[in-house]
Every structure is written in C-alpha cells, then in structure tokens.
C-alpha cells in the first residue's frame, strides 16, 4: 500500500527517537526535570504516531475485521499503554510495532532484521532491568554495565548468576529476554544453515551442468569416430568405367552419322 511505503521511514526514525527518550532518564537520572518531561512527551508522541498509523491502515483496509484478525499484535501494542500508563508497557508496545514495521520493509534482509532485533532487545532489556532493579533493596544490578552484562548472558542463555533480578517485574523481564534470545538464536542458526544449503545446492548444480557438458562432448566424439571409421572402410570409386573384354568400344556419334550419310553400297549407274 502507498501509505505503508510512505510511512515506513518516518516511523522507523520515530522509533529511534523513542529509544533515545527512553534511555536518557535511566542513564541520567539526575537530569533536570524538564528533560524527563520532554522524554515522556516524546515517548507518548511516538506511541501516538504508531497508533495513528494503525488506524489509517485499518480504515484503508478493504475488510476491516479481516485486518484486525490478521494483525492482533498491532492492536495489542496500540491498546497496551492505555491499560496502565507504565513506561515499560510503552516500551513493549513500541517494540512490537517497530518489529512489525521492520518485517514489512522489503529492503531489510533477514540478517539485518535479526541483528537489529538483537541490539534493540539487548539495549531495551538492559535499560528496563536497570530502571526496575536499581533501587531494589536486595538488587545487584546497579549500573548500566551490570545491566548490559546481565542482558547479554540472559539472551545467550548462559546465565552466570553473578547478576540476577530480585524483583517480580525484573524476573518477568528476564523471562521475556530469555524467550526472545532463544527465538533469535534459532533464527540465526536457521539462517546460517539455509545459507550453507543454498551454497551446496549451487555447487551441486554447477557440477551437474559440467557433467552434462562432458557427457554431451563424449557422445559427439563417439559419433565422429564412428563416422570416420565408416568413411575409411568404403573403397574409392574409379572415375573411368572399365571395358568388358571382347566387346568393342562404340564409335563416337559423329563417325556414325558420317557413315550413314555416305552409304554402304556402290553407286548405281544411270
């Protein structure tokens, strides 16, 4: 659709702005009050832009209910921040909408999408768990470095245990990050396996093509040898026809015509 093609770039740029607005209050909690207020306004503005995009696509769809049934995550992402105005819900909603938009972009390949998803999940997971666990009484994730390290070990399903969330919301984030990491690792593994398979298929196709060419050349050489052997076995023809013994050769037509004109008997007397 034209609307989806035109809105693709601006919405992805707004998603980047949302990431910055979400990260600033967590990384710099001592910033001035107007900075926090501005970041909150940017977050809601970005969510509103994605909500308007969903409504426009819903109106332009030829079958409304079919569109709703085919895009349940989009509807959930639009309605989720309205249930309870938590920043974490806005993060989840925006991630769902950005992921949907990224998958729809034809210029984004699977590898680029997976790499962007890994970086995005790690960044937002680190910021979210730092925001939740920083002020927890028994929390051990106090800095951004600890949060990034925890996100990396959680997404790769390693889990050293040196850093772990202690609050209920932090553990919910950990479960989501684990499941997302497993899914992304599965996609990466499948993508690598598909690349190797396609490479082997191309090599096999090239080998089969060369084998077919060699067989065709062998058949042609065999036919040429058979033709040469047939021509060598045939005796050469004599250009002069041989004369049969005891049969005189016929005189030329000119001599026969002269003899017929002069006559064979003596001349008669008058």
TrEMBL record:
Gene Ontology biological process terms, A to Z: monoatomic ion transmembrane transport
Keywords: Ion channel, Ion transport, Membrane, Transmembrane, Transmembrane helix, Transport
Domain of life from the UniProt record: Bacteria
Ranges of biased composition (kind: Low complexity): 240-252
Keyword Nucleotide-binding: no
Domain Potassium channel span(s) in chain numbering: 119-196
Annotated stretches, region: Disordered: 230-270
Residue stretches spanning the membrane: 47-68, 110-132, 173-198
Pfam family membership, one: Ion_trans_2
Residues annotated as signal peptide: none
Keyword Transferase: no
Main localization of the protein described in the UniProt heading: membrane
Subcellular location: Membrane
Recorded topology in the membrane: Multi-pass membrane protein
Record protein name field: Potassium channel family protein
Annotated source species: Streptomyces formicae
